[in-house]
Amino acid sequence: MSDFFQQFSRRKFLLTAGLSATAALLKGCLGNPPEPGNSQTQSTVRSVANTNPEQAPETTKVKLGYIPIVEAAPLIIAKEKGFFAKYGMTDVELSKQASWGSARDNVEIGSAGGGIDGGQWQMPIPHLITEGLITKGNQKIPMYVLCQLITHGNGIAIANKHQGKGISLRLAAAKSLFTQLKSTTPFTAAFTFPHVNQDLWIRYWLAAGGIDPDKDVKLLTVPSAQTVANMKTGTMDAFSTGDPWPYRIVKDKIGFMAALTAEIWKNHPEEYFAMRADWVDKHPKATKALLKGIMEAQQWLDNFDNRKQAAEILGARNYFNLPAQILAEPYQGKYDMGDGRTIDDKSMAAYYWKDEKGSVSYPYKSHDLWFIVENVRWGFLPQDYIANNAAKAKELINKVNREDLWREAAKEAGIATADIPTSTSRGIEEFFDGTKFNPEKPEEYLRSLKIKRVSL
Ligand code: CA
Questions:
Q1: In whole numbers, what is the pLDDT of the chain averaged over residues?
Q2: Which residues surround ligand 1, an ion (CB under 5 A)?
Q3: Could you list the residue range(s) of the whole structural domain that residue 67 is in?
Q4: How far is the CA of 75 from the centre of ligand 1 (A)?
């Protein structure tokens, strides 16, 4: 194994003055009760019982952004079930973001300027912001990836007019349809932000089926809600996004689902919790308190007995504003794909804490690397990121990925040793088409792919 994956970050963060930590603890104890109806006394007792004075957060306040899809659940549950408050973070504001572009704009300005300190992200947005590649004036704003929020829970929806034309997980039977459309009105597919998860899933799926996403179809960025409207009016053929949107398409009889991301890459990395590095550097204990709250929410969410309640909390008007039933079925691994196919398999459901391959919450550096390599594949990032066994990509990942903070938070929260990965790499990954990604040999992976925008 390379140094990159063996190396655990040894960075030490600044210790804050004992005085301010004590003040923060007192403030935390006197803050809002974790759950409605709790008396001040109960709240105080709970906070003290669960907060080691040495771990008391430097602040109780933070503003986190989220997009109303199942990926946001650990943040919402941590707030609603009192898990943030339990670790002293009594004043967490969750701010619904209109789009990924607004989330990016808001983290650029930070909470002091009316924006956000961090929150939910597609990958590799934190790395692209750190590099100043998607910010105003290419300003470099260092960010830290702190944990993964979820695996699965995403899919590729297709407009009903394409029913019965062979568009499914495997596209061999639909190739002639794409060719035919190319000369008239090209097949149009949307994602919610360029160069990240949704764009990458749709590209991977098309390319695996021999369809060139840059030459054979038209791909564009559209916010999820608008995509549904466009699909209704017939101007959109496909889109890729998180639950509940693909499922709504089926229930509203607008379209069907060609594939779940769980089918494309079982137990794949999906969205992450990341924050501005300056906030984390200033508030290392508060960061770990947030992480502990999220970890507890993730464990709570993975208890399937809690999922009905989870769907009700998320569906509420102030969060997703939709009937809980739309979330409840996919949450049990039940998908009506809308083309006669049904999936009833718990292993295909969204997972937050642990899946068949181990930890979901832990941010594997090998997964950051896949997202960067895939950006190189499509020409979004220059090839020098993967030269010399991806030295530049690894340098960036070592700067952005703070798996060391995840480990510290997990230990402080008393997480079982068995649930704490021993390596920063999850090892070799396999996709539905048989392609393998060996994080030790990213160039080999790129070489094995037929459709790509780089030559090796
Ligand atoms: Ca997603």
A1: 89
A2: 154, 197, 242
A3: 27-152+270-363+401-425
A4: 15
